[in-house]
Amino acid sequence: MLEQAYAKINLTLDVLGRRPDGYHEVDMVLQSVDLSDQIWLELLDGEDQRIVMESAATNIPLDSRNLAVAAAEVFFRKTGIRWGGVHIHLDKHIPVAAGLAGGSSDAAAVLRGLNRLYQVGLSTADLSMLGAEVGSDVPFCVYGGCAVARGRGEKLTRVIHGLRGWVVLLKPPLFVSTADVYQALPPALYSSVASSDAMVEALQSGDISLVERRLFNGLQPVTFQLYPEVAVLKQRMEQVCGSRVFMSGSGPTLFVLAPTQAAGQRIYNAFRGFAKDVHLVRLLQAEEFH
Ligand code: C5P
């Protein structure tokens, strides 16, 4: 069985404060894009349960450190299924440790797929709750589309909008640890007011230039300080394309919005010289997600 695992970008990311559990209280607008990993799932027979993962990608672990395996473990534990198991084959296309929720999206795809394969009948909300045990971005990736995510990322409010748009993603050649970025975030950078309401309004107005003006990422200054080369790249990209360039999540992926495929293609061509990992993708509507 094939499940698509779509990447996400952050249209906004406000950190509101630090929580007693060590996580941060966030308020973010998350949006799926049509860059995806393919997850092939196959049930395994046998009394001893096995979770076997395989991928041609060389830069990811294939054991419990991989969120897809962690998701299968949570699924079997929570459903009480002790037999059989699953073979997970991953075709990796989403850049790793990039701020695009690639690993979280793989995990969400495994949860959706196992629910269908084992015919357990869990609702999307149930799967989303299981996903929260695997990682903060997994609940959103279970739903996909567009949503405001609050709490540590698991409290979701769906956003319905009809905005069509293209996105050019550029992943600089370095890996960023989300934990390191949050750790380095000074309280002075906490937001007192979240940007999500204004962003939702912009999305629903259908005006992509308004969406562009309202992009916000409170982690961006931290990642730029830890990795100054990303800040330099952002400036050069803005000079070339004349639009605002923003970072997704904790980075380092930078993105630009474009109103049409042709405009996106021009920006994509211009950015090809800056990095190897450049993608032209489309904003995914909620109904296109599954
Ligand atoms: O939930 P996840 O494992 O993806 O988070 C990775 C790390 O990012 C956490 O260990 C934590 O340090 C940080 N984080 C945070 N606040 C959030 C989400 C993540 O501090 N809302």
What would you say this structure looks like, in words?
There is one protein chain. This protein is an alpha+beta fold and 290 residues long. 34% of the residues lie in helices and 28% in strands. It has 10 helices and 11 strands. It has helices at residues 67-79, 102-117, 124-134, 138-143, 178-183, 196-205, 208-213, 220-226, 228-241, 261-271; strands at 2-18, 24-44, 50-55, 85-91, 146-150, 155-158, 166-171, 216-217, 246-247, 254-258, 277-282. Strands 1, 2, 3, 4, 5, 6 and 8 form a 7-stranded mixed sheet that branches. It has a 4-stranded antiparallel sheet with strand order 9-10-7-11, with helices on one face. Strand 1 (2-18) and strand 2 (24-44) form a beta hairpin. Helix 1 packs parallel to helix 2 and helix 2 (102-117) crosses helix 3. The radius of gyration is 19 Å and the shape is globular. The mean pLDDT is 96. Residues 23-24, 26, 135-137, 152-153, 178-179, 182 line the site of cytidine-5'-monophosphate (C5P).
